[in-house]
Amino acid sequence: EVEATLTFVGAGPLAEPLRARAEVLGVSNRVILQPWVDQRGLAEFYRKASVFLYPSFESQGLVVAEAMGAGVPVICIERTGPAFLCEQSGVAAPRGPYAETVVALANGLADIHADYVSDPTEGKYSARRAAARQEYDERLDWDVVAGSFEAIYAG
In 15-149, where do the E strands start and end? Predict the structure, then answer.
């Protein structure tokens, strides 16, 4: 049995169905449904996270960049907007039929969890956290992005 807590941040129409499903599965004590928080509160959730799961096909994925900026390894679905961001530090789960994609996401969680359990402060997990932050610094930091725009307009 894996010792973990699943935290959802933000309010929405799925809160009650998620709460009910957690009850049915007997894991409600390990599922946190956190209503909306401001940016400062959200940053605190990122700092406490050991992994960030982004199981969406949405193309933007700003939350992926925010998680990486906090040094959190990300799991997302390949061939989606944010998938290229987690090439070195996280997992881009293969996109396929629904059930296969869910299994791939679960396997990504298991891989990162195994790295964490084996050595949370050194080794592969620590390297993933450092790579997430490095990818953010090199590709997503506002100064880097602004410099890219300046170069386009100057060129």
Answer: 31-34, 52-54, 74-77, 91-93
